User: What shape does this take?
Amino acid sequence: MPRLPVKKTYKLFIGGAFPRSESGRTYEAQEQNVALASRKDVRDAVQAARSGQPKWASATAYNRGQVLYRVAEMMEARLSEFAGLCSGKEEVERAIDRWVWYAGFADKLTQVLGSTNPVAGPYFNFTIPEPTGVVGIVAPDEPALLGLVSRIAPAITGGNAVVVLASETQPLAAIELAEVLATSDVPGGLVNILTGKRAELAPWLASHMDVNAIDLTGADGLRADLERAAADNVKRVVLGKPDTQSLYEISAFLELKTVWHPIGV
Amino acid sequence: MTDVEKRQDRSPVPTDWTYAPAPESTSILTIEERYGLYIGGEWQKAKEHFTTISPRDESPLAEVAQASEADVHDAVAAARTAFKTWSKLPGAERSKYMFRIARILAERAREFAVLESLNGGKPIKESRDVDLPLAAAHFFYYAGWADKLEYAFPNRTPQPLGVCGQIIPWNFPMLMLAWKIAPALAAGNSVVLKPAETTPLTALLFCDVLRQAGLPAGVVNIVTGDGSTGAALVDSDVDKIAFTGSTQVGKAIQRRLAGTEKKLTLELGGKAANIVFDDCAIDQTVEGIVNGIYFNQGHVCCAGSRLFVQESIYEPVIAKLKQRMATLRIGDPLDKNTDVGAINSREQLTRIEELVEAGKEEGAEIYQPPCRLPEQGYWFAPTVFTNVAQSARIAQEEIFGPVLSVLTFRTPEEAVEKANNTPYGLSAGVWTEKGSRILWMAERLRAGVVWANTFNRFDPTSPFGGYKESGFGREGGLHGMEPYLTFDAAETFGG
Assistant: This one.
């Protein structure tokens, strides 16, 4: 008699833990019951992101690079599982390579994006990039895994914490990714992943006063409303690409700080 | 006084420090009775006009056009036409036009400085020594980028955006004009600029600089008017809006552009923390505090309006600050001795007065040095509030006037916590002689500009702009080019 497989309960990923939605709701996607996150879950996730962000940003760039590389290692081990949740093996391989690419940028972006500025006076003046803080991501539906990784990786490489609204129709890769992150030395709260209805959750994320930037790559028809809501606290609005890797995908989530000091004896 | 005393210069200390008047002459200026709109390289007549005045005595200076929606439409159309040829011009040629503008501005700097002080109320020594030299320097700096963009953005293909709508404030009219127009032109864009309602005259004089420089018609268009003109510009067929002004209006613009393809940069309000540690160089620090809040009557978005003093040094700092405030000379903006000029408008004066009242009602202690304010015009004495609560309106809201709120702290951690407790994040100041503490503080302050042992310094090479609700995008430096370019072509690297 064939063995009955043990099925997974798909839950949310908030603050490094896997809670069910506080609303107790689920919906069916990709033939599984998936947690249907609520407005309260969005708020909890933002709070977790806010508390997780400073520690990540203050880790050394070398250390952040290593942690991001570790994500690639952990994904590689689950390659076949991921392959069943997206378009297949090739997409997973590209997603893994994307983590590796971003991992290598963690300790280089300051040199590429920063500057010392030759001001006309006796001052030392330099500009450095810094994380903007908490980033909300409305993830694209396609590609299910690579699109998700392409939005999360640049934001956290830059030192931000993120709250991700996973694809509504293909959320399983996101939860699988959460399990990878939970076992990859990524600090709890740095990446928070919610599954549910985009139209229900995205407005709360876009209008949240403790979110600094919002990535609307997967917002589709909701974009104008979400941008309007984002203006409440002058959020940075990022319209990224679902399948790209670039330094400028990182810099979209960065602030520039300029520091002056007099030169004298 | 005996002859011996005279020889030894032991004259008694004078009690009257009044300076003889030293007014800058306005004879250098020619102000037209009535101005039109500068569209397509020509002066176009407008249907409606309003009177622009001098805030120093409320005297009328000129009639200025109130641009309508149709006027704005014409200006954008002229800019659109000019863009076709201007954007195709080799960078080196664009660059030379801009160098010309920089040179002419420097040559005519005094004329501009006098007009700036007359129309805006800022002391002539500031418009003469800060605003105008920096404005000319800004054009000179960005002129050089026009043909070197491939070095600024390696591996990218920078392209101009098109027509840029630019809306600037009244606190640094010419400097903000330069911050906006210079990078836009260097990138190959054309411009429609709307000066602030209360300070249009230097922007209108700038049109004459454009004529002298021979800039092709329509590359820069100037439309004057009130907020409705600005709103028409935001809604018009532009490719980008660059706005400097209040956070409230900035949010309204961001909402208005939601869902459009127009690019946006915002440089908005601030409530900067100026943090004084007990190991600071105290006299230098007091100068920095004064410069931080009373420079340009406190009409500065990055003004150091929240002073945080470490408890252990609180008394001497406040004593010296009050002493120093008493020596500030308040009065005629055109007097070369004036430190604090006129408040820009009646509207702004009312806002300052309202917030100062709120400060008193909330229990803060007010100090204003004895000073005689002119009877006509808009004036407000330099003010400091002590015993201010974190939650007080004067500790939270931008006053945009010569009003300082003093708070205290004990530890560096507490200073950071309190300094960052604001929706704004434009600038911050740190005063300490300890180098490692400066860097520790600079790392933690959530602000786009951190001045350590100095304050209110600006330079064309130095990026400026805010965190949080102080806006997004940078002006100045290499980073200031980016908001005026598009890189949409092939942006994926490494596979």
